[in-house]
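Risk register update: the risk of archive-format incompatibility is retired. Evidence:
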Amino acid sequence: MQRKPNLASVFASVLAACLLGSGCGGKDKTDSAPTGPETKHGLTGDQAKQPLVQIGESVITVGDFAEELAQKSPYLRARWSAPERRRQLLDEMVKFELLAREATRRGLDKDDEVVRTKKQVMIQQMMKSEFEDKVKLADITDQEIEAYYKAHPEEFNKPAQMRASQIVIKDEAKAKKLLKQIVERQDDNKLFRELAEQHNEDLETKTRLGDLQFFSLPAQRLEGDPPVPDAVAEAAFKLEKIGEVAPQLIKTEQGFHIVKLTGKRKELARALDHARRPIQHKLWREKREASIESFVTSLRDKAKVEENLEVLSQLKTPPVELNPGQPFIPGHSGRPGSKPAGHP
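Archived output:
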């Protein structure tokens, strides 16, 4: 690599400017009095344009160096305060540029993954500049927050809920035999799942190894609660310890239920003052998303978007890979030892 003859003197002057002046972004610009119009990091336009290193057609300027330093955490910026350490940082920048040039020479700038990553970064930068100031958290008013709180009481006031798993068997004698086996080993969650997989006659919960998900007491049911028989729900609420099994079979129209408690949720009663901040963030995200959707829609309207959706039928979806003998379970990754989220 060829350096310009005056690199050492230029670098020394830059370090002096950084250390005695703005600290390359580390100090308040009022600590120094540079002449001429300022850019970022307390550097004048002329200072920022000074070359530090020339690498072929590429140039690393004082402004580039100051920007690189400013992106470090305050702790790391303190570590770079010594001239020899800042020289190390410059060497890292030169190394980065050399590697980037070599990757470009090899044509990797046209690689599909590189092009896609470049697009993603460009989109991120555009969205940041386009929407950072357009929708602000402070723009969400108290009136909007209070209106949302009143319109969605179910989000802030919820009854206690239980989660349980079941095995439903129509034959009472068989159910009693299984219950005895489970009660004797009620801390053995693996055993319960295996028996639920083998013997549960309720098709809906069989695929979930008996999981009933979270539910409320019959008199306090919420919209979206799973359809749990009243007797089963009441039996689950009588259990105290997670992992505990109801000592008696619960009889319903479906058959005889063996019920195991797998989770608890306490009653939720949240006042407006405690809910204000989460609501503000939720409304801000919704407004931001709406603004982004509107922006994308306007771009789509201006562009010529032609779709040929029929070709999607040619796409073959690869099959789900499962362990030998393992049934498909919604929410199950298929990896050894994995199980549905929240399941015992």
